[in-house]
User: What shape does this take?
Amino acid sequence: MKENTGKSKYVMLGMLARMPQTGYTIKKWIENEYSHFWQESYGQIYPTLKKLVAEGLAVTSNHTQTGNGRGQIVYIITDAGRKELSDWLREEPEIEKIRYELLLKVSFGENTEPEVLLGHLDDFYRRNDKLVKDMNCYIELCGQLKEQDIDCSYSQLTALCGVYIYSAMRDWAVEAKNIIIKKEDDK
Assistant: This one.
């Protein structure tokens, strides 16, 4: 489970501000739209939703959705929840922290064979290339929704950030491989 930074509450409130949702639909939306900068596990989502209800920031619907054969609780944001979300949005964001284990391994690369690092970089390239494609598909989907008078401009902005991040990391992997290969050729 990922470290709970205390921001799960605001992620859930933001998702519920869009529309009433189940824990499952929140998880799927996060995976599709936010995967390049935010993760939430079911182990974070469901306890947080229950806490929001206990704090009066959300309520559960009188009826449940059935999608996979069992009832799922639908959560709805309250006015107090909207105020809590609005207050949080006005706060200064924390400074971002990035952690890439691959960069640690590259940094200590003199302690292994170049082929090991080249393999890691190939994998990294493929992952980031797929993520660029996924984000572009999401942007395209948002464009289609716009044609149906559904505005997801802000969601498109987060996906666009993903395109830039993943493209940069993909391009870095190519350059890093070239540098390692040239270093080996120069020996």
